[in-house]
Amino acid sequence: MSNKEVKAALKSARDAIRNKEYKEALKHCKAVLKQEKTNYNAWVFIGLAAAELEQPDQAKGAYKKAIELEPNQLLAWQGLANLYEKSNQTDVRGDLADVYQKLLQLYESGDKQKWCDVCNKLVELYHQENKYLEVAETWQKLIQMKQEEGAEKAELHQLWKKMIQLLKDSTQNRDNKTEQSLLSAFEHAVNSADTVPGEDHQNLYKDFIQCLSKFPHETPRLEKACHDMMALYPTDSYPLEVLCLHFVQSGTLSEEALHCFSRLLEMDASSGPGIIGFGIKCLQEKKYKEAVKSLTEGLQKTSQCPAAWHYLAEAQMKIHKHRDAVLCCNQALEALGTPEGPSLRWKNLILQLKAEALVKIADANAAEEAIKALEQIVDASSDPVVLAIRGQAYLNKGLMDQASKISQELLLSHPDLAESHALEGFIHYSQKNYEQAERSFLNAIERKAETAEYHQYLGLTYWFMSDETKKDKGKALTQFLKAAKLDSYLGSVFCYLGNYYRDIAGDKSRARGCYKKAFELDGTDEESGTAAVDLSVELGDMDTALSILNEVTEKASTGTAKWAWLHRGLYYLRTGQPSQAVADLQAALRADPKDSNCWESLGEAYLSRGSYSTALKSFRKASELNPGLVYSIYKAAAVEQILGKYENAIATYQQILKKTEDYVPALKG
What we know:
This protein is mostly helical and 669 residues long. Helices cover 78% and strands 0% of the residues.
């Protein structure tokens, strides 16, 4: 076949392809290749025809052969790109990317529009594969090309915005280069906007700041972006809110942070981050109740802030609301998700605080939960304070050997740590080794004199050690007073002071004040509530007694606060108000249906009201629950007598006299 014939055959092949006669085209190409195996165009036409006849493998082979012959010719590369684009197989994507890369090289010096088209396709392909770094690098080349061609500012602005769209999902990948490309795209987009200030620009700035807030190491850039946006949009609270939350999460509260909090509240008094910031300021100033109030309110509006939950838990601990503190720690851990970097430090702090709160709750279940929390702390075994908390948890759980082992290890490795000596003290105290406990608590106080709990336990040690140390003003009383001075929210220590003034000093008025304070601090402390009421009655101050009882019963849910209902019921009974007495004593019995004395009092109330049948039932119930209650048996007989059931009454009187021959009321009956 002469050169002329080869050209004619190739022309026929091209015409056949144009007329969609692909098999005909293949014949012409094969004829050419018989004569001229290295004919580039013949291989390209075979690729085209085979692709149309849905013979992808033959098409691919033909294109690759053409590329081998002339690697820098466009046609075969274009054909291969078309072939891969039509393929449904995912495994060709990598090959397609390589083809696009080659096409970019070939178009670079010539057709700029086609170069841009291929560039767009390559970026789309990388994006589908979540190859964000390649997306960033390729798109930046496109922008560079446009800049070199002298593109308008508006077109470049749109390209930077498109780059943000392409990379915005990459923040989970944690690839530093991609991250920097995304932030750079934001900076260019923000700086190339046409209308400034304007709504689009404002929203773009918000997105930029939100993006920066996801990267803990970009603090200077975040602060700068917030300040820049505040200067442009002084009435928009968003940058200030982000800045405030950033300061909260950083855990260090500078003058600048406090200034931001107050500025935000001036701008928007209902702003969650602003209220949280104010709560943290209160916590710093030791205004713990205000801190709890503000942090709770702020977190209702901005709940996904682990550090704020931690601060709230801290404030709850300061006022000894340990169960509330545990709930806040759980919320903090939930908001934290799976932490890394700086968040890991927060996780450890939260878990430690949770364990401390659970140890203070002081029951076996809470101790078990505390041990589990401590096990999740990274490098917990190297932190002596965490070890001391674990020792206390073991002690609360009754695992004395494990607690003692930790205590001995800590005293050897950290003899200067107050917590080492305190743990030893708690162990001795629980075993009633009061002399050794005294020594341990004195050692702890020597190293950390500002801890109220150490003084409280030293006071309790003296209280139980002997009558002398109990009565010695310089011992138990002094320590209780020091504890109360160091921590005015420590309800239990005011209860112990009440015990001292009532039982040792005989000062009922001062004792009543201490019990009242203890009960105000801890509404679940029945011992203090009861003592405050009893002493008020003894001091003839019924108003105070009733105000305490009314406050408790108003808040009490059904089946709780038996002591308060009972006390108030008995007061009504004494003061001739039987209907109120009946209602309160019934409420007390809902809390404890097996209290025979309460049934007896209820019988008295019914009797005073003239409800004889129900009085009879109440007295019978009391004597059923406690057959030794002679008075209830006698009152049942007396009511039967009133009701005219004489035979029953006589039988009951005789029954009493069998047991107690000289029980005068029964003889009279």
